[in-house]
Write a structure and sequence with these properties.
The C terminus is likely disordered. The radius of gyration is 19 Å and the shape is globular. The chain has a single domain, classed as Ferritin. The relative contact order is 0.14. The chain is built from ten helices and no strands. By secondary structure, the protein is mainly alpha-helical. The longest helix has about 35 residues.
Length: about 280
């Protein structure tokens, strides 16, 4: 048993800064004004939101399950700053799950069942892994999708509570993406410093994994395309942004670690907590 150390190593300053951000920026579903007038009163639009938000809710639940499983893995590897941060990530996903569960009550609808929406549940099953780099690659696609959809829903401003939920989630997702970048970059810096050939093989396997996870997105989009179109969300644009952003972020982390190992780049001072889609 190697979970505990008498004096843990907290020298990873970038991960520790994100841990401190995660602590300071916590918020609660009770901070929202759930009594705000509901703009969406029609049966059809509530039906559409009920279907549309299904992949969002399943994504939050899956992320809560999977991130909780990675906390002891990092403990066994004595990666304490990363383990610290994942505790805040788990709290974030629990909050997001609560928010959307309560929002379903606000619109008096239920999410689609597994039988009616297998694509969403199958997509989430592609992400789970006990290897931190494999998991972060898969969850990078999921978090990027949550960020894209949250941007679209916030900008539509269909309902004040939903807009507030999306605005808060965008801040949380920015921290998650920041940690994803920093952790992966650190791992590849170490891998390339030790064995360039094996590091290249790992990079290629993660790019293949990203493709595998992203291949699960089109069936989700097709399942809710009609609802998204009527609400004014261009699903082809969403898929294009998601595919490009997720792949670019993975490559940026891998190449950043490689450049640091080869001495052509130094680590960035501040975490990459991106709120904009790049």
């Amino acid at each position: 048993m190697n979970i505990y150390k008498v004096l843990p190593d907290l020298s990873n300053e970038r991960q520790m800064r994100l841990w401190q951000q995660g602590i300071r920026k916590q918020w609660s579903a009770d901070d929202l004004d759930w009594n705000a007038p509901r703009r969406i009163s029609g049966e059809r639009i509530r039906d559409q939101l009920g279907r549309l938000l299904t992949p969002v809710l399943t994504g939050e639940q899956s992320a809560l399950y999977s991130v909780s499983g990675l906390i002891p893995v990092l403990g066994h590897q004595s990666e304490v700053p990363a383990q610290f941060y994942l505790t805040t990530w788990a709290v974030d996903e629990a909050r997001h799950t609560e928010l959307f569960a309560r929002y379903y009550g606000r619109i008096d609808r239920e999410p689609l069942s597994i039988r009616k929406f297998p694509a969403g549940y199958l997509f989430q099953s592609r992400i789970i892994s006990k290897d931190p780099c494999e998991w972060l690659t898969g969850v990078l696609a999921s978090e990027s999708m949550a960020q894209v959809v949250s941007h679209e829903l916030r900008d539509l401003d269909l309902d004040p509570v939903l807009s507030d939920i999306c605005a808060g989630i965008l801040e949380d997702e920015a921290r998650h993406l920041g940690f994803n970048h920093i952790y992966m970059e650190d791992q590849f810096r170490q891998m390339y410093a030790k064995d360039r050939e094996k590091a290249d093989e790992k990079a290629d396997s993660l790019r293949d994994r990203m493709k595998y996870v992203l291949d699960g997105v089109p069936p989700i989009i097709e399942a809710v395309r009609e609802d998204m179109d009527e609400l004014g969300i261009d699903m082809d644009k969403v898929q294009d942004i998601l595919d490009r952003v997720a792949r670019n972020r993975l490559d940026k982390a891998i190449n950043g670690g490689k450049d640091q190992a080869l001495g052509t780049k130094t680590a960035e001072t501040e975490p990459e907590a991106e709120t904009a889609l790049q």
